Amino acid sequence: MMTCDEIDAAMTSYVDGEIDLTTRQAVEDHCARCGPCRARGRTEEAMRRLVRSQASNLAAAAPPSLRARCVGAVPPGDAAPRRVARARRWIPLSMAATLLLAVGGVFLSGQQERLEAAFAAQLAIDHEKCFTQFGTGHPPLEAEEAEARLAAEYGVDLAVPAGDPLGEVVLVDARNCEYDAGHMAHLLYEVEGQQVSLFVVPDGSHAERTLEVVGHEARLWSDAGVGYVLVGNAAGPADVAVMDKAAAYMRAYER
Asked: Would you place residue 100 in the very low, low, confident or very high pLDDT band (cuts 50, 70, 90)?
């Protein structure tokens, strides 16, 4: 049985299909029994789907300074697998998010702006990963059921925005995701048939802004010491209109 450190070292090659059949089977056997490694694999796959889907927009080289920062973020030698093994959580400027920002040519001058852009990139990955895992065709989820699930399974006390009576905003799932400071609720919605995520960050404070990263739009705001990030596609005007509607609905919802 491979160890978690060995899985960390092999995961990139596994997702890229560049390992032999024996090692591939060993990785799959381990991930079938290990939740954190299985989640890491799904995250790697989600990141690669994002990169492939944005291939035409990611053709430009990253700015030299950002590329250097990506290289400098990788620990030397044998330290890399151990560091990754200890950090299976969303963290600002994580390697996955930093890489996406680098190949996308996203460069912001201020440290806070860079952190928020990296955080938004991470949530775009999580948005894709969770919707891929969840699939499609599920019935609406009642807000009360979502609140009970979050409280029972994750200890999260949250007033969940319900879907609207007309069915244009539909709550379909409620999950818990990790980031550097702990846990955050991830609410999955369909808005006019489009997939939209609302992340609720306890004790979080974000300057109100809209960021575009790897083909997704992230809208950040705070209310009463709680941070909110709305994530959805940003392929064109129709997607922006859906995000406008979703943002207005979530911000007006009475908690």
From this structure: low
Closest CA to 206 of 219, 197, 188, 190: 219
pLDDT value of residue 81: 40
* Distance separating alpha carbons of residues 146 and 159, to the nearest angstrom: 9
- How far are the Cα atoms of 15, 50, 175, 210, 213 from residue 232, in angstroms, in the given order? 25, 13, 17, 12, 10
Cα–Cα distance for residue pair 196/236, rounded to 1 Å: 15
d(CA 30, CA 238): 42
Residue 216, judged by CB atoms within 10 A of its CB (0-12, 13-18, 19+), counts as: buried
Please give the structure tokens belonging to residue 124. 């775009």
47: left (phi over 0), alpha (psi -120 to 50) or beta: alpha
> Which DSSP string do the residues of 180-233 spell out, in sequence order?
TTEEEEEEEEEETTEEEEEEEETT----SEEEEETTEEEEEEEETTEEEEEEEE
The dihedral sign for the CA sequence 35, 198, 51, 78: negative
Domains present along the chain, CATH in parentheses: 138-252 (3.30.200.100)
CA distance 141 to 189: 9
Listed residue (126, 163, 154) closest to 42, CA to CA: 126
Beta bridge partners of 229: 199, 220
List, for residues 11-67, the tens digit of each pLDDT value: 878 877 778 899 989 999 998 888 888 877 877 777 676 666 655 555 455 556 655
The answer to whether the predicted template modeling score (pTM) of the entire model surpasses 0.70 is no
Q: What angle do CA 234, 147, 156 make, to 5 degrees?
A: 90
